[in-house]
Structures are given as C-alpha cells and as structure tokens.
C-alpha cells in the first residue's frame, strides 16, 4: 500500500511507502498521510468476524497496509507481540457495552498504537545507525512510547517531560527504565510542557544533530499509530456479534485529537458494520460544533478533567475531511457529535459506579455519556451501543477517588511500578542539554 497526503490526495502528486510515511510523520506539504485506498473486506470475511481471535483480526486489518514493505510472517509476529493483552467487551447495562482498551502496560488505549508502531518501525527501518525516537510529553504519551520501544532492537527513545508537572503515577511510568542499561531514557526538564515541545522542535531543526543522530517522532498523527487503532473496532464488533448478535451497532469514541475516531471511520470504510459513531468531547468541542453548524473554528484549548482530550485544534480533523471529501452532509450521516462539562463527568462516574458497580476514568465517562445522550439508541430495537474505555480509572486516581469517596484498587502491574525507586534525571531547558542526552 502506498500513502498520499490529505493536501494532495491525487497519487500523481507523489506517494510514500509505509516506511517513509512512518519515518516522516507529517507529509512534506504539511498534510497528513492517508492510505491511497481503504480496501473493503469481503462479505464472507465480515460474516466470519465473530469467530476470529484478536491476533487474526489484527493481522487481517494491517496486512494490506504493510504489503509489500513487510512479509507476512513478520507482520504476524508484530501483531502477536504488540497486542498481547486483552481488549474485552464488557456489558455495563443492558445493551450498553464498554470496550476496555486499558489492559496494556501503561493502562491506556495508546498502548495499542504505540506498541505496534514501535515494532513496525524496527522492522521497516534499514538504516545502519539506530533510530532515535524523540518525544515531548505532558505525561501519558511519553510513557506509552517509552514502554512500547523498551527492548525493541535498533531503536532508542528520548522522552522530555516537564519536571514536577506530571502526576506521580505518570512519573513512575516514565522513569522506570532509567536505571537500566536499556534503550529508553526519560528526562525531567526544568520547564513547562511547552518548553519540552519547543526543545524537540529545535532538535528536529538542528542539522548538525541530525547528521549525527537519526531522529524520528512518534506523535499521534503518525500513520504507524493510527492504523493499528482500527484493530479494536473490528475486535469490538467481533465480540458484540458473539455476545449479543445485534442488529445494529453504534460506537461512541471519546475524542481530543480525533485519531481514535478516525481509525474507527477507516474501519467503517473498510466495511465494518457500525451504523453510526458518536464523537464525544469535553468542553473542547470544535468538531461537535462543526457537525452542528458547518464551521470548523479551532481555538485555544481549555483545561478539563479529561485532560488528555484538551485539544483546541484537532489534527486528525484533516483526515476526517479527506475521508468525506469535505462534505458536511456525508460526515453527518456517519457521525453525531456531543460535548460534556466536568460537572456531568463527575455525576456520571459516581452514578454508574453506585448503580452498576462499573468504575470509569473521566475520558471513558464522556464516551459513556455520549452513547446515552444519543437519542437514536433508544429509538431502535436490536441496536446496541459500545463506548470505548480508553484509560484505567487508576490512572486518574486523583480525580476519581474523591468522586466516589473511596480509594481505587490499583492493578498489580501499576502497584509494582509505583513501589520502585524513582530514577529521575533532571536537565535544563536548553538545546545544549538536550543535545547531550543523545550521548548518554
Ligand atoms: C484516555 C484518553 N482517552 C481519549 C483520548 C482521545 O483520543 P484522540 O486524541 O485520538 O481523539 C485520549 C487522547 O490522548 C486519551 O488519552
């Protein structure tokens, strides 16, 4: 499969291999890479979906996009190694299901994209020098990337995070590999997230450094992170078919940068029977607002409880527009938008916990509410709803515990990480200090 850009979708304007698309991240024209074509699944394959395992589905989803760059055996090994944790569909109340994507090593859905991307990159890259992934993080992405690349041959990771401005859980997850002789290093920068972001940009623009070190990024617009996210939509529908044989399925995706939803839209375009999507946001609602009045008006983000979705200018909207040929009407046929305030999030977490015994993190709660608010759920018999549970509630203990008034059970893997001594490595917020990290 070849990749084109959203700005010049005509293949005559140039195409990239998966390897190039992944190493570059953003296309040279400033657009986002998209597949030249989204191949539809055959009817018989979709009919048998309910009998397929996660690994079989993942292989089938990714194979067209990795051909001819990767051989079949490598592709199979990559999905088996990357997606080695369950993604169960759990019925929370009649007809309403959570697709739990938080059973990976950093307890969030980002593990799916980051782990697969790490292994794809390692297999596709043919350079002599190791590839160094440089990432700035406000907390979550950095730990998913660090875990994903840890131990992956021929790769190195440098993560910059703002000292004293990530949660204790995030810092423990970020720094857990620092003590080893491994390929991952996280640095606490004396500055803000914006400083970290600026320093990574300066490093990418530093010609001298780039002659010495092969740098790449692993940010969320990268095709290598997006394509694997299609897998769990297929896996979710497969489990729904097994459990409930529904007539129709509506999926609600909690959205910030809209990569997660875009992957679902790709899956639908490939033939996955999802009747409609609900895009649920926090107060950062530029896409729901676009669906309402047809104007896309990015603005500065506002801070909310579901902070990983505090995005005022969602990058992947450009891919959504490409997918619908810039037709608002076509997009509206597939997607309904809604937004929720922090007060609603708190009430819902408490209520669902008390009435159903199901505990959600703030992002997941927004997805649950999106499904419930979507009027069509109630009107159609035989329709079920799936909401994506994108993070384990223990990742957001500081928010969730006061809402439910009791401590949360910490998953054993996280408890173990939290108990480790922390190996924080501090650096100044300067380009020189960052340059020196590459010699560590
Ligand atoms: C826990 C959680 N849920 C939902 C999202 C939204 O995903 P996206 O940014 O792809 O829309 C994020 C994004 O970082 C997240 O961390």
How widely separated are the two ends?
A: 38 Å
Overall shape: it is globular
The small molecules bound here are:
pyridoxal-5'-phosphate
Radius of gyration: 21 Å
Mean pLDDT: 93
CATH T-level topology of the largest domain:
Rossmann fold
Estimate the strand proportion: 15-25%
Which stretches are poorly predicted, pLDDT < 50 over at least 5 residues?
A: none
- Helix percentage: 40-55%
Describe the strand arrangement of the main beta sheet, using strand numbers: 3-4-12-9-10-11
Task: Tell how many strands the DSSP assignment holds.
Answer: 13
Number of helices: 20
Count of the domains: 2
Sheet with the most strands? 6 strands, mixed
CATH architecture of the largest domain: 3-Layer(aba) Sandwich
The helix/strand class is alpha/beta
List key phrases describing it:
single chain, 440 residues, alpha/beta, Rossmann fold, 2 domains, 6-stranded mixed β-sheet, 5-stranded parallel β-sheet, 45% helix, binds pyridoxal-5'-phosphate
């Amino acid at each position: 499969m070849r990749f084109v850009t959203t700005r010049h979708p005509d293949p005559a304007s140039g195409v990239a291999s998966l390897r190039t698309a992944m190493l570059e991240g953003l296309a040279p024209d400033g657009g986002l890479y998209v597949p030249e074509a989204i191949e539809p699944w055959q009817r018989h394959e979709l009919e048998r979906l309910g009998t397929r395992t996660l690994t079989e589905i993942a292989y089938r989803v990714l194979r067209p996009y990795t051909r001819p760059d990767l051989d079949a055996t490598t592709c199979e090994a990559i999905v088996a190694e990357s997606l080695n944790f369950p993604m169960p569909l759990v019925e929370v109340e009649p007809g309403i299901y959570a697709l739990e994507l938080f059973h990976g090593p950093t307890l969030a859905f980002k593990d799916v994209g980051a782990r697969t991307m790490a292994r794809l990159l390692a297999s596709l890259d043919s350079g002599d020098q190791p590839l160094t992934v440089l990432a700035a993080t406000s907390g979550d992405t950095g730990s998913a990337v660090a875990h994903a690349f840890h131990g992956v041959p021929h790769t190195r990771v440098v993560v910059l995070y703002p000292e004293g401005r990530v949660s204790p859980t995030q810092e423990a997850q970020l720094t857990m590999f620092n003590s080893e002789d491994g390929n991952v290093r996280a640095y606490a920068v004396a500055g803000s997230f914006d400083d970290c972001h600026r320093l990574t940009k300066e490093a990418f623009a530093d010609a001298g450094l780039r002659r010495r070190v092969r740098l790449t990024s692993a940010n969320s617009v990268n095709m290598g992170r997006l394509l694997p996210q299609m897998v769990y939509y297929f896996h979710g529908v497969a489990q729904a078919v097994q459990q409930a044989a529904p007539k129709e399925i509506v999926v609600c995706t909690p959205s910030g940068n809209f990569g997660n939803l875009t992957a679902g839209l790709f899956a639908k375009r490939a033939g996955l029977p999802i009747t409609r999507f609900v895009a649920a946001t926090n107060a950062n609602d530029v896409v729901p607002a676009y669906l309402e009045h047809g104007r896309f008006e990015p603005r500065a983000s506002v801070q909310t409880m579901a902070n990983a979705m505090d995005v005022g200018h969602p990058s992947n909207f450009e891919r959504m527009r490409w997918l619908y040929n810039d037709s608002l009407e076509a997009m509206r046929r597939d997607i309904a938008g809604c937004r929720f305030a922090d007060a609603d999030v708190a009430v819902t977490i408490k209520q669902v916990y008390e009435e159903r015994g199901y505990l959600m993190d703030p992002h997941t709660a927004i997805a649950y509410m999106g499904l419930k608010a979507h009027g069509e759920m109630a009107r159609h018999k035989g329709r079920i709803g799936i909401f994506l549970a994108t993070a384990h509630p223990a990742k957001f203990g500081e928010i969730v515990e006061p809402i439910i008034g009791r401590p949360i059970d910490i998953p054993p893997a996280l408890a173990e990480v939290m108990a480790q001594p922390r190996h924080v490595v501090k650096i100044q917020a300067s380009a020189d200090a960052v340059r020196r990290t590459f010699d560590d």
